[in-house]
Structures are given as C-alpha cells and as structure tokens.
Amino acid sequence: MIALDVLCLRSDVNVSRDVNQVLVTDKPISLVLREPCKLQHILTSTGTAMCLLFCYINPHPQIGQYKLVLVNNRDEQYTRPTKPAHFWDSGILAGMDMKPGTEGGTWLGMVRSGHIGCLLNILQPAGNPQTGKSRGSLVVNYLLSKQGGLECCKRIQESKEKYQPFNLVTLEPAGDSYKMVVYNYEDDQIEQLKPGIHGIGNSSIEKPFLKVRKGCKKFEQIIETHGKVEKEEELMKALEAMMRDDEACFPDPQIIIQGEKNEEQLLKDLSSIYVSHYEYGTRTTTLILVDHTDRVKVQEKTMRQPINTHKPDWDTSRFSFQIVKNDK
Questions:
Q1: What top-level branch of life does the organism fall under (predicted)?
Q2: Higher confidence at residue 197 or residue 45?
Q3: What is the pTM of this model?
C-alpha cells in the first residue's frame, strides 16, 4: 500500500506547442541578440539550456531532521512546451519536456523508492553543433531501471558520444542517509560524493561557476538556520528566495572560458542563480525534502504557459508521499 497525498494549487495549464525556429542571418550577433524572436537559435547553439542544483545530504539524520534537502532551477527557452510536475503512468514524479522530437524526457525526477535523477547541461562555446540523442531520456532511464546510480553512470559513460555534454546527478537511499553519484561528461569522470553540502551547475565539479560557490555558502547558512522539520515553511521560503537571486556573478573566468565567442551580455545573464535573458531563463524551481521518517515533500513553482516574459504568472504544485523501499 502506497501512502500518497497530493495538494495541487495550479489551474489547468495550456501547453504551448510552438516549434523553435532556426535562424539564418548575416547580421552581427549583437544585432541578433536585440531581436528576441530570433534569439532561440543563438541559445540553442551555445547549449545554454542548463539548470542548477544544490543538495544537502545528512549522514546521520536524527529525529526532526532531514535526510535530504534538494533545490533545483530549470533554465530553458520560454517557448519550449513543457508539462508541469505530475505523476506519470510509469510512476515518475517530474515535469515533462513536450518539444516535438524530445517529448517524454525530463530534467529532474523522482520515484517512490526515493531515487532521484537530475540533468544539467554543460555551457558550450557559441556555434558548437547541437546534435545527438535527447539528454532528457537519461533521467527517465535511470529512474525506471533496476540499476543504482553508479551502475547507471557507468553504462551511460560507455555511450557518451551519443549526447551533447552534461552532468548527470543520481541520488538513492543508502541506509539512514542518501548516496549521491555524479557523472561529468567533459571530464569523463564518475564521482560518489560524500554527505554534506553540494552544488552542481554547468561545468565540472572541480571548476564550479561563481554562482555555484555563492549558492553553496547561502545554502549552508539556510540549512543551519532552518534545517529542521519543525521549520519546514521557513526552510522552503528561504530556499525559494535563494533560487530567485538575480545578482550577476560576473566576470566569471570559468563562464568566459566555457562560453567563448558568446555575447558578453548573455554570459553575464547566465552568471546569476536566477537567469533572465530575453526569451530564455529560469522558468521552474523545485524543492525536494526527505525527512528522517522517509516522508517526502516536493514543491514545484513553474511559469504558467504561454509565458508572459515581462510579468510571468507562477503555478505551484505540491506532492507528499512515503518512500516505499525496494519499489524500483
């Protein structure tokens, strides 16, 4: 028997099915960036559909404490059709990419066994060809497989050339705590991270962007101040505020190196935790809390579609359920 409570605070969402158009132009890139309707090709060619994740793993959770606290921002083109978080027929709790050709994938998902998968793209130089299989299937395949994170990452590593660069984060219950495994495409390394505070962005773990360093410090302060179950509402509000921080961390040497040949304004806009750049930016924030009793709370705040980029409306969905061990 699965205990499942769902509180949905959003109205029905009209999913846009606009198809991204490819731009061919002889104009200087500085002019193109001033025409929002033509921006999508520029963003696609840089691999800038990114995301940002902060995670706290408690090695020895006591009564009233959390095993896991996770917060994620999804940065994406505002016109990309997406379904908000919901339980899929397969049992995955996640938002769903609905772009024709890649529909059915996701950037962040969880199943009732407590396993979590998250995809974060790697910032690329302007003009890099964007070919290969959809990376959104990586999270789905992990959550539906019988493999643990380490085994899954090893399997993906063997076929990495089929995809554009990415970080894949896997989390799974391990005793009274959680195990976190990360595969970084660029370094071709699989790492099992120790419990504690972690920030994963759009570069290798060893070379984090400044906004990741900044976020980790703030995240640690929030956990120390509000990291108990009795302060859950304060915790969630503080995490939401952190993920809405739009202060640029620029110049950032790592962003400049990875994003070479890109417009400086684009790189500056990408240097903040909350991204806003013409027709692209942070459009979804997700919180996942797992307490010492394996009670899970998930909250997603996402821009209502079609998105008004000047004054977006936000829909909130909340889910609560008990982890069912060995249900994967």
A1: Eukaryota
A2: 197
A3: 0.87
